[in-house]
TrEMBL record:
Ranges in a coiled coil: none
Listed cofactors: heme
The protein's name: Cytochrome P450
Keyword DNA repair part of the UniProt annotation: no
Originating organism: Pseudopithomyces chartarum
Stated family: Belongs to the cytochrome P450 family.
Length: 184
């Protein structure tokens, strides 16, 4: 949030309107649509680790956090159990298969200006896509593929989203986040 002070302020204003002077204790994404949009947009990011002064520190900025920079840019590997053909390509049994989450989340047809942090894309369209093609907004689509897809999608996705929204709401309710001078 330190990298996006305008998004931070908008989220804080929304939290203040809903909770006022009361610490958020339960968050429903429908109460806080902008905060939920920030979560989904942040779902494009990956956490980077940088070696600095013999310490590893996680940091995020405008170029690093689940859709923009996913934690697992190529998802968790799976292997085919039998020979298969996909889009005319033969895939032998035992082939390692990865979902390229980064490429999905950076498809300029779906996410114009994909390298920009823009939570409003999820306010305009629940999938954050710009496509006018009705199939682009099909219910089988996902807001983010950071939690995987298909039968092996993360079983904890809903719990993770609710936990993250509550954590974000509490932190933004209580604090203004900004970079320390060593990061400027």
């Amino acid at each position: 949030m330190a990298a996006h002070p305008e998004a931070q302020r908008t989220a804080q204003d929304e939290i203040d309107r809903v909770f006022g002077d009361t610490l958020p204790k339960d968050v429903d994404g429908t109460q806080l649509p902008y905060l939920r949009a920030v979560f989904w947009e942040a779902s494009r990011f990956e956490i980077r680790f940088e070696h600095r002064r013999e310490k590893y520190m996680a940091f995020t900025n405008a170029h690093q956090v689940l859709r923009w920079r996913p934690s697992f840019p190529t998802s968790i590997p799976h292997a085919t159990s039998k020979d298969d053909t996909y889009n005319g390509h033969f895939i032998p049994a035992g082939t390692t298969v990865l979902m390229n989450t980064w490429a999905i989340h950076h498809n300029e047809e779906d996410y114009p200006n994909a390298d920009q942090f823009d939570p409003t894309r999820f306010l305009e369209n629940e999938f954050g896509t710009a496509s006018s093609d009705p199939s682009a907004n099909d219910a089988s689509r996902r807001r983010t593929y950071a939690f995987g897809a298909g039968r092996r999608v993360c079983a904890g996705q809903d719990m993770a989203e609710k936990t993250m929204l509550l954590s974000m709401a509490k932190l933004l309710w209580a604090f203004d986040m900004r970079y320390g001078s060593q990061y400027l």
